[in-house]
Amino acid sequence: MEFFLVQLLNGISYGLLLFMLSSGLTIVFSLMGVLNFAHASFYMLGAYFAYQVSTVLGFWAGLVVAPLLVGLVGMAVERYGLRQVHKHGHVAELLFTFGLAYLIEEAVHLIWGRSALEYRVPPELDGPIFQIMGSPYPMYRTFMMLVSVAMLVSIWLALTRTRIGLVIQAALSHPETVEALGHNVPRVFMLVFGGGAALAGLAGVIGGAAFVTDPGMAVSVGPIVFVIVVVGGMGSLAGAFVASLLIGCLQNFSISLDWSLAGLFSWFGWMVGPDTPLWSLWNVKLSQAAPVLPYLLMVLMLIFRPKGLMGTREG
Predict the structure, then answer these.
(1) What are 137's strand-pairing partners?
(2) What is the rounded CA–CA span in Å between residue 195 and residue 34?
(3) Burial of 1: CB neighbours in 10 Å, binned 0-12, 13-18, 19+
(4) What span, in angstroms and rounded, lies between the C-alpha atoms of 6 and 207?
(5) In the chain, is it the N or the C terminus that has fewer CB atoms within a 10 Å radius of its CB?
């Protein structure tokens, strides 16, 4: 029971971090139709900016300043990059963001080097917050969950209960009408893209301190973000939330279990030995297969429900 509760909480906290990262990509795609390959690079920038700010002003200043800086970078990318290639179609946008990811990675190498940085959890959040059957649970994991939930509530309120949220949603389906009412639609899209980048930057601030801050962090989480967007449904924020929790729990439980198909067969009295066909496959442990499970889930989702769990828009 202790193992289950600890892994469940770890899975939820990791899933909420993934949602914090994927929510920006989901919002940008749902409102602008842009699938940003450089989104995970904004996550990396958030961690590096937070580290740089924290060396001077501390962790809490980095938590506020870094997402704002990443948001400004995102707005500049949309204004001077994406907006110029938008007229050439989605392929040009994909190629642009794909190249941008490489440029950001090389810029990080040039400025901060190729080694991991000493970006750590702040002392006031370093320690247990409660115990689960005698096992201490880290305070920072709880902080990650609280920030993620607060961000989710803020996004929902901003999009559904504020005037700017209504303008953003209207600009998607009726841009000419919104422009006729006096709103600057290109500026709205620039703010949306910058907001999506800022959300990725916020995830970088939180995730960089919890795990590792190095130039490979964008590559490590980038594919998972796209898996979440596909599984949850292209453009569905609720779907991204459910998919993030699902994949977070799936990965946390799977890496901790040494189950195999051979063991499952033995429960039914079917003995698997070296002479059994595909013996190596039957002995692959769940912990060994953990990295590919999210992609297997995505493949199954594309086969049986191409629009995802809650998707309403096709990519």
Answers:
(1) 130
(2) 14
(3) exposed
(4) 19
(5) N
- Domain carrying residue 35: 2-218
Q: At what angle are helices 217-232 and 90-112 packed, to 10 degrees?
A: 150
Cα 78–chain centre separation:
20
For residue 37, the SS3 value is coil
Instruction: Give domain status of residue 290, yes or no.
Output: no
List the helix and strand counts (H, then E) for the chain: 15, 2
At 138 the three-state DSSP class reads strand
Say how far apart CA 118 and CA 9 lie, in whole Å: 26
For residue 251, being part of any structural domain is answered with: no
Phi-psi region of 308 (alpha: psi -120 to 50; beta: other; left: phi over 0): left
| Spatial distance between the Cα atoms of 308 and 185, rounded to a whole number of angstroms | 29
Q: Is 310 part of any domain?
A: no
3-class DSSP state of 183: coil
Q: Nearest 5°: CA angle at 308, between 7 and 249?
A: 0
Contact 42, 216 (CB under 8 A): no
SS3 310: coil
Domains in the chain: how many in total?
A: 1
Mean pLDDT, the chain, rounded, equals 86
Q: Is residue 22 part of a domain?
A: yes
Query: For the segment 40-83, what is each residue's pLDDT rounded down to a tens digit?
Result: 999 999 999 999 999 999 999 999 999 999 999 999 999 999 88
Q: Which amino acid is at 266?
A: S
Closest CA to 121 of 60, 197, 40: 60
